[in-house]
Amino acid sequence: MLNNKNIILVGACGLIGKEFSKSILENSGNLIIVDKDEDSLKSFFDTLTNKYPDKSISYFPLDITSKKSIIAVIQALTKKNQKIDAVVNSSYPKNKNFGRNFFDIDYEDFSENLSIHLGGYFLISQLFAKYFYENKIEGNIINISSIYGVIPPRFEIYRGTKLSNSIEYGAIKAGLIHLSKYIAKYLKGSKIRVNCISPGGILDNQPEAFLLNYKEFCLSKGMLLPEDLSGALIFLLSDSSKFINGQNIIVDDGFIL
Ligand SMILES: NC(=O)c1ccc[n+]([C@@H]2O[C@H](COP(=O)([O-])OP(=O)(O)OC[C@H]3O[C@@H](n4cnc5c(N)ncnc54)[C@H](O)[C@@H]3O)[C@@H](O)[C@H]2O)c1
User: Fold this and answer.
1) pLDDT for 144-175, tens place per residue?
2) What whole-number distance in Å separates Cα of residue 257 and Cα of residue 255?
3) Which atom of ligand 1 lies closest to the CA of 64?
4) What is the pTM of this model?
């Protein structure tokens, strides 16, 4: 399906990134995993190479908020004559105060979270778009947004739990959808594609009360598993979606309807 395309996966060591890594390899993609967490990166690389000994897998530490570290990865691959076909960004930068309630968020934390998350996604998109553009590559950029970039939270599903949904997250994810459409349009005529996937909530040890509240709004399953996102990812990475550009694919079991 992916015909040995060279795909960089940012945030590969995360809940979604780990599953995306497997899907890319199992669909004939060559995988370059990158993440800020160097220890997890090395150990995940070892796990993948053991499980998929015949596949092309490499890894590089990368911080999406550091222009220097992004350029270092592009240069290292260029030096090896390895063309990059696609970059998928599934990283989740946040500072230590991320996720506070609306009245408790300091301006500094709001700004810092926007800067490292939305700003970091901007930087990845900008620098890879530049690489694709300057090398006349039909590049493919996929950003992971969220249903909370599309609708405001359903606050009632958090009642009776310690979970919450923060204002900076929605601002970041809505901004990311717009940013992706902006870049897609800015690059008109270049054959570079920029799309988003907006997942619904992913199962991750949430309390039972929350799972039941959440499921009330869904059409069949409720919270999803990371593997439920793989179909959308592989589709967007493949040539089947060659003329899909500037879109946001929502994978949420109907939660936002
Ligand atoms: N988990 C969900 O329910 C859910 C739902 C909708 C959307 N999303 C989105 O999907 C993406 C992935 O979510 P997840 O649950 O897998 O997150 P996660 O926290 O499990 O993993 C995120 C990964 O990003 C890496 N990372 C953090 N900061 C980084 C940086 N500055 N540079 C490079 N890597 C960095 C972390 O080391 C980690 O490996 C996020 O953008 C998130 O907003 C998640």
Assistant:
1) 999 999 999 999 999 989 899 999 999 999 99
2) 6
3) 32
4) 0.98
